[in-house]
């Protein structure tokens, strides 16, 4: 059993690369057959320059779906071989306009005939296959434009890992993990303050015994996330001490903790959640917005130097 049979569709990209390399090598033989002094990868650019003279580099790149840098490199190579000429546009001097040279124009009829023969041969090749690869590629490109492979893989991974993440209640044996997770992110961005240590060193006294609650996220046997609900008055709780370990970020654990905290606040009779953060923490602020928090200026003075934004979430009964 070879690699592709063993791995299956997970190796789609590698197999397409192998097919591309095979066709590129055979395409080079075709160019030699017609005595055309070109490389296969030059063809899209050369074809556009020949059929639509006067295009600038950006327009060529957009038309063939390649980067500006890649097209510029091909044009440099074509110019080096005397096949195209590059000049500044009359209307916009910042844009380079590409045209065929006399040598390139002389080559064009032969290249046109070669392209026509290749098209006929390719259509015969496609007719030999049960599935039309050309049409399938169009369908694949459309599907990927609607939803990238990265997003598809992430959705499957998140669905799988969601079952492995457990949201549990705090117990005294988790105090070291509760402190470590918070110290880790605070010291990464800011400095640890005395007010932090009160809650992190003594969570039972400063959070639990005051009617608050701490939630933890367990993943593959380790505590990788945490957040706390600290009562401010009879109907308002502060969402605080939210942290997710760097090794577990990207798994949706912050979202799971946030949702669990909101649900717990409702059970505790809260009608409002309040939090403090810093505007440099972009991913955290995005999470709070997704959870429904909005900026407020009605919060009390913060005991933290790092706080420069306050947010709230009104909870419906």
Automatic annotation (TrEMBL):
<dbReference type="InterPro" id="IPR050832">
    <property type="entry name" value="Bact_Acetyltransf"/>
</dbReference>
<protein>
    <submittedName>
        <fullName>Transcriptional regulator, MarR family with acetyltransferase activity</fullName>
    </submittedName>
</protein>
<dbReference type="Pfam" id="PF00583">
    <property type="entry name" value="Acetyltransf_1"/>
</dbReference>
<keyword id="KW-0808">Transferase</keyword>
<dbReference type="InterPro" id="IPR036390">
    <property type="entry name" value="WH_DNA-bd_sf"/>
</dbReference>
<feature type="domain" description="HTH marR-type">
    <location>
        <begin position="9"/>
        <end position="158"/>
    </location>
</feature>
<dbReference type="InterPro" id="IPR000835">
    <property type="entry name" value="HTH_MarR-typ"/>
</dbReference>
<keyword id="KW-0012">Acyltransferase</keyword>
<dbReference type="GO" id="GO:0016747">
    <property type="term" value="F:acyltransferase activity, transferring groups other than amino-acyl groups"/>
</dbReference>
<feature type="domain" description="N-acetyltransferase">
    <location>
        <begin position="176"/>
        <end position="316"/>
    </location>
</feature>
<dbReference type="Pfam" id="PF12802">
    <property type="entry name" value="MarR_2"/>
</dbReference>
<dbReference type="InterPro" id="IPR036388">
    <property type="entry name" value="WH-like_DNA-bd_sf"/>
</dbReference>
<dbReference type="InterPro" id="IPR016181">
    <property type="entry name" value="Acyl_CoA_acyltransferase"/>
</dbReference>
<dbReference type="InterPro" id="IPR000182">
    <property type="entry name" value="GNAT_dom"/>
</dbReference>
<dbReference type="GO" id="GO:0003700">
    <property type="term" value="F:DNA-binding transcription factor activity"/>
</dbReference>
